[in-house]
Amino acid sequence: MHFLQKYVSVGKLLGVGMMLCITLRQTAPPKSLKGFFDKSNDTIQQLDLFMVAYTTGAISTWIIPSSYILTILVGIPSNTYILAFLRVRLTSKTLSTVVLYLNLALSDLLLILSLALRVHYHLSGNNWIFGEISCRLITALFFGNVYCSAQTIACISLKRYLAVVKPFLYRRMAKTSLAVWMCVVVWLLYGAAIVPELLVKQSYHIRRLEITTCHDVLPLEEPSHSPLVLCKLILVFLGFLLPFMVCIYTHVAVIYHLEQSSCDWKLFTRVSTLVFIIFLVCFLPSGVLHAAHYIRLFSSGDDTLYGYYRLAVCLCCFHSCLDPFLSLSQDFLRRSHRHQCLVSLDCLIDGNHSSMYCSRSVFKIISLSCIDNLICH
Predict the structure, then answer these.
(1) Counting C-beta atoms within 10 Å of the first and last residue's C-beta, which end of the chain has fewer, N or C?
(2) What is each CA distance from 335 to 323, 339, 340, 342, in whole angstroms?
(3) For residue 46, which of 155, 195, 208, 237 has the smallest C-alpha distance?
(4) Among the listed ranges 65-74, 92-101, 190-199, 312-321, which one has the minimum average pLDDT value?
(5) Cα 193 from Cα 197, distance rounded (Å)
(6) 3-class DSSP state for residue 342?
(7) By C-alpha distance, which of 52, 42, 279, 238 is closest to 147?
(8) Is 212 in a helix, a strand, or coil?
(9) Is 329 part of any domain?
(10) DSSP-based three-state secondary structure for 376
(11) Measured between alpha carbons, how far is 126 from 121 in angstroms, rounded to an integer?
């Protein structure tokens, strides 16, 4: 009996301890990876096992910096080239399209340039030596431009949707002004997204590991970090979920519209679908994991998804290398589009295709003065 009472008492103590742990984790404002801040010496003292494993493991010290190095080596020359290429292709007819692609190339280039210091950070064992100001700036540029690219791609998809599905409305629009205002909205959202990262402390010294982390480890109890959770969730919605839904709807609508025609649009539909799949593969994992990570942090204090999220972000960075090559394909599709117009017109004149769909498609195509209505991205 005494033996049983002893275990009952131990069970009660464990139950009380678990309730206290749950209460503390629910009341403490969650952040990226968990750390407990010692204000007396401005260091993080207590660490959980996952945080130690992430900061010292191969994922953050080898795999992530290796992917960043590949992105830099491919992305800087390719995006620099596409900026020059678009400048050469700049005409009054293609101005609205070039504005959006220049915006995309600029966003990609800023993202890639922000990776250089992060490569040094990860290869040094997640030890930041460049100071607090540079940590805030690089963090803001990094996360801001990841989703700025997605928003710009959504704008390009929306423009293509208007040109193909709503040609009469599109022709009446001031296309250049529309493109410029799209870019302005994207950069306003970008500015709103990076402000919280610039206002709060991002670098903390971890005494146990003798390293200074940049953004990866933030103290739970610091009230200045509390708004970051809500800001991150808003950023996920505006930077990924909303562009993602726009891209899905516009892509399906454009493909469906072209498939109704008897004319041959196989080349465009295949390339457009391929580019759309690449967009999903690169952005979907990071968007889902980003939202799931902060939801789990907010609800239970669980930070175990953070490492997987950081790996998924590498795909977003790699997409910035693919954008220039995908942009170059638009030149080929423009030539194909011009050829398709002539073939479709011949079909109509010769009477080989009496389908109403073909006639309607030809009428819509010829009614558009710009040959940049169908652009691969």
Answers:
(1) N
(2) 20, 6, 9, 11
(3) 208
(4) 92-101
(5) 8
(6) helix
(7) 238
(8) strand
(9) no
(10) coil
(11) 5
Query: What CA–CA distance (Å, rounded) separates 161 from 170?
Result: 9
With respect to residue 162, please indicate whether it lies within any of the assigned structural domains.
yes
In sequence order, which ranges of the chain are alpha helices (DSSP H)? 2-27, 49-56, 58, 64-88, 95-113, 115-123, 132-165, 167-172, 175-199, 226-236, 242-259, 266-300, 306-350, 356-367
Helix axes of 306-350 and 49-56: crossing angle, nearest 10 degrees? 60
Nearest to 276 by CA among 252, 241, 312, 257: 252
CA 256 – CA 250 distance, rounded (Å) = 10
Domain annotation covers residue 47: no
CATH code assigned at 76: 1.20.1070.10
The tokens describing 345, both together, are 């017109």
Report phi then psi at 248, rounded to 5.
-65, -50
| Residue 49 belongs to a domain | no
> Is the CA virtual torsion 27, 28, 32, 35 positive or negative?
negative
Give me the number of domains the chain comprises.
1
Q: What is the pTM of this model?
A: 0.75
Element (H, E) at 34: strand 33-38
pLDDT digits (tens, 9 = 90+) for 177-204: 888 999 999 999 888 888 888 888 888 8
Q: Could you list the residue range(s) of the whole structural domain that residue 291 is in? A: 54-322
Query: Judging by DSSP bridges, how do beta strands 33-38 and 217-219 pair with one another?
Result: parallel
CA-to-CA distance for 207 and 91, rounded, in angstroms? 58
148 burial (CB, 10 Å; 0-12 / 13-18 / 19+) is buried
